[in-house]
Specification:
Helix content is about 40%, strand content about 15%. With about 300 residues, it is α/β, with parallel strands linked by helices. It has an eight-stranded parallel β-barrel. The protein has a two-stranded antiparallel sheet with strand order 5-6. The protein has a two-stranded antiparallel sheet with strand order 10-11. It starts with 11 loop residues before the first strand and ends in a 10-residue tail after the last helix.
Length: about 300
């Protein structure tokens, strides 16, 4: 197993999209020293590179020589009753061997059954039984990859009536059982809190920052209904003001973290992604300049 050669820096990265290959490569290959480039790193969905070769791999190889990569998987389906998708796991392992990414992550979710695969990341119940099952699958993945992974908090639209713990407690217990860490998607917190009537600030505050290895920022769609708004996690618009405020709240308490601008649908011009990244960088730099523990939670 090829170990990652360079960790993700506590700076801002963006999702790497084919329509931005040329501009993104020019941005990072012309910079020196190594981390002076903008963005500081790129994240890709490894499933887009499961083919054996061709232009996608030529481009990814070129990026891997110039900047750290994070693999954000969407297909392991660790929460499925049958467990992790073994075909996906083997393909992911081969890609990790090939590129030695700085980070690998997937979701606290399931997306398949014995006979079906779904194009969604469906949330799991927060129960002891689900925790044990999910932790077994995370350990299986980590053993196969020869590394720890990050697990992302989900966007939720409904709550399970049988939940016996909150999201933060579930994630903390998962980390304790498996040694994994958290990918904290702050947009997902805004989505879940709005849809379920929860306190988004309390949800951010409840997360143990020491377990957070990466942060995601994204936009979402909004539907207004008589009973209230419904937020849909589609990664197709700028980061909202509410998510920016939650991000500032987190980094002022926790300090800078590797932070991704995630934009997967209606992908804009590369300059738009860079403008979002610049705002995230400004917030993190302001947080880093504060005296330690200077931020008091409201």
């Amino acid at each position: 197993m090829n170990a990652p050669t360079v960790p993700l820096p506590p700076q801002v990265g963006v999702g790497l999209k084919p329509e931005h290959y040329v501009q993104a490569f020019e941005a990072v290959s012309a910079s020196a020293p190594f981390f002076a480039g903008w963005p500081a790193w790129f994240e890709v969905h490894p499933q887009n590179y499961f083919g054996a070769g061709g232009p996608p791999h030529r481009w990814l190889s070129a990026f891997a020589e110039n900047t750290p990569l994070s693999f954000h998987s969407v297909g392991l389906s660790m929460g499925s009753a049958d467990g992790v998708n073994l075909e996906e796991l083997e393909q992911l392992a081969a890609l990790c061997d090939r590129y030695a990414p700085a980070m690998v992550s997937d979701h606290l979710s399931w997306s398949g059954s014995a006979s079906n695969r779904y194009p969604d990341l469906l949330p799991v119940p927060y129960t002891g039984e689900a925790l044990l099952h999910f932790s077994e699958q995370v350990s299986r993945v980590q053993d196969r990859l020869g590394r720890t992974i990050l697990v992302e908090n989900p966007s939720r639209y409904l709550a399970f009536s049988g939940d016996t713990m909150n999201e933060a407690d579930f994630l903390h217990a998962l980390c304790a059982l498996t040694g994994c860490s958290i990918l904290l998607d702050i947009n997902n917190i805004e989505v879940s809190a709005t849809n379920l009537g929860l306190d988004a600030e309390a949800m951010v505050d409840a997360i143990d920052a020491g377990l957070v290895g990466e942060v995601h920022l994204a936009g979402h769609a909004r539907e207004d209904h008589p009973h209230g708004p419904l937020l849909i996690d589609d990664h197709g618009s700028p980061v909202t003001d509410a998510t920016w405020r939650l991000f500032e709240r987190f980094v002022r308490s926790a300090g800078p973290r590797p932070t991704l601008i995630e934009w997967d649908s209606d992908v804009p011009a590369f300059d738009v992604l860079l403008a979002e990244a610049a705002r995230a960088d400004e917030i993190m730099q302001a947080a880093a300049a504060l005296p330690e523990h200077a931020y008091a939670m409201a």
